[in-house]
Amino acid sequence: MLEAYNENELVIHSSSKKVFVLVIAALAFVVAGGFLFWVGLTDEEESAVLMVVGIISIVFFGLCLLYLVFQLFNKKPSLIVNDEGVTDNSSAISGGLIPWQDIEEIILYDYMGQRFIGLNLYDTEAYLARQKSMTRMLMKANRGLVRATVNITQASLPYPLEEVYEVMMNKWENVHLRQP
Description:
By secondary structure, this protein is α+β, with helices and mostly antiparallel strands.
């Protein structure tokens, strides 16, 4: 069982090792983007394409790099599962506390080789309306790609998602069994 779990609460912090590996990967893509941009400056035939791809890579992975460096020093838990609900701070588009009463379904699924815990909500639009505008926009874009409104990935968590899912399901079922 998860060592971060007691009978009332599961508190998980990001794995510093996993986040550090992601920092190195993001940095590599920023450097690769810079290289493509530089080659685009010198190559006359495909210069525009290389420069655009380079700029996109630098901007996207640069933002990822900033977020990941912030995560390395952030002491806030990535995930909290307790009697209130699930507090998700595990990604850049995390939405904070989601009460158990708002969760319609919890699923464990794979998408593009990555494992996720998905939370489908009774009222997705009300949940999105509570988010900051940038988070809301990213969540809406993400919604078309994955199977759930809220998605928790294995990427930076130090425990297997199957164990986290089991704890979440037990808490969720207890709340739903108590409701009339």
